[in-house]
Design goal:
Elements: H1 5-27, E1 31-32, H2 36-42, E2 48-51, E3 55-58, E4 81-86, E5 89-96, E6 105-112, E7 115-120, E8 123-127, E9 130-133, E10 141-143, E11 147-151, E12 154-157, E13 162-165
Antiparallel strand pairs: 1-2, 2-5, 3-4, 4-7, 5-6, 6-13, 7-12, 8-11, 9-10
Length: 166
């Protein structure tokens, strides 16, 4: 079978589309955290830890807003929004004699189900020490006090955790 240029481009585009469609699904699969080095260094059993890989998605930045009489936009450094899907996390460890002498060993676990978090990074407000040109001052700008402010970051979401012993 002979591969043409059009066929190879179509195959490449198909592979790229499949990789793009599969990447969010990969984030939900828990990935085991290797703790074998802790076991050998401390001489004890390490807990099992598996977590999903978060995939941050950058949102649209707000457009600058200008006001009458101001030379700089309202938010000089805009806040960058991020949507982040936190995958399922499981931490499990052996707990000796937790349920009495008849049951020698139990397993304690902490599980955090998958959740969606939204974050907005910090922004800045900067004002120049000059006003817009003033007609009463022969077209020259007036001096004002410079302004500087920081827009606080935001974190929105509902993470939860389940504690269990079996």
């Amino acid at each position: 079978m002979k591969m043409t240029a059009r066929g190879s481009i179509a195959a490449l585009m198909t592979c790229m589309a499949a990789a793009g469609a599969a990447s969010p699904a990969v984030a939900d699969v828990p990935v085991g955290v290797p703790l074998e080095g802790v076991e050998s260094a401390l001489g004890m059993d390490a807990p099992r830890v598996a977590t999903g890989v978060p995939v941050p998605v950058v949102g649209a930045i707000d457009a600058p807003r200008f006001h009458t009489g101001e030379l700089m936009p309202e938010r000089t450094l805009p806040a960058v929004p991020l949507d982040l899907g936190l995958g399922r996390t499981l931490v499990a460890s052996k707990v000796p004699n937790a349920l009495g002498p008849e049951k020698k060993e139990a397993e304690g676990s902490l599980e955090a189900p998958a959740t969606t978090m939204a974050a907005r990074g910090p922004g800045a407000v900067v004002g120049l020490p000059l006003t817009a040109p003033d007609a009463s001052n022969y077209g020259l700008p007036n001096l004002t006090l410079p302004r500087l402010g920081v827009v606080s970051p935001e974190l929105i979401g509902e993470p939860s955790a389940l504690l269990g012993l079996r």
